[in-house]
Specification:
This protein has five helices and four strands. Strand 1, helix 1 and strand 2 form a beta-alpha-beta unit. Helix 1 runs parallel beside helix 4, helix 1 packs across helix 5 and helix 2 packs parallel to helix 3. The longest helix is centred in the middle third of the chain and has 20 residues. The two termini are 15 Å apart. The mean pLDDT is 94.
């Protein structure tokens, strides 16, 4: 059976939170014998661009995992980045049939982000990694028919 390979794309703006998310994803993929590579980008808006760069290259990944954190500030920027990052990931996934797990946190404060990124049951990166893996399995089962 072919090994599954995933590219984890991490927005590294909030390093403590992104490192927690990354640890959760790595633990999940290691537990499930999934091969992965990691690339870090400056912020959430750069994640979808990076996934598209890799998708267009000759480097083959079965799926992608987007990790990062957007914390609400005092301006409308939070809504723009949250909406555009989610929308662009969804557009990529649908247009190019790419399995993508979205583990980008959108929180109102840093405490919420820490809670959702810690190595507890709430680690949202594990949930997103699981979603990515399940979508890869669905795509592979359809492609093998």
């Amino acid at each position: 059976m072919k090994k599954i390979r995933v590219l984890i794309v991490v927005a590294d703006f909030y390093k403590d939170i992104s490192n927690n998310l990354l640890d959760g994803a790595i633990n999940y993929f290691n537990t499930n014998s999934i091969e992965f590579d990691i690339v870090k980008v400056p912020g959430a808006l750069e994640i979808s661009q990076t996934i598209k760069f890799y998708h267009d290259s000759n480097i083959n990944f079965d799926g992608y995992l987007a990790l990062g954190c957007i914390i609400k500030g005092e301006t409308y920027h939070f809504e723009l980045v949250s909406n555009e990052s989610a929308s662009s990931l969804s557009d990529l996934s649908i247009k190019y049939s790419i399995p993508i797990g979205n583990g980008i946190l959108t929180t109102y404060n840093k405490e919420q982000a820490i809670l959702r990124s810690n190595q507890t049951d709430l680690n949202k990166a594990r949930e997103a990694a699981n979603a990515c893996l399940e979508m890869i399995k669905i795509k592979n089962s359809i492609m093998s028919k």
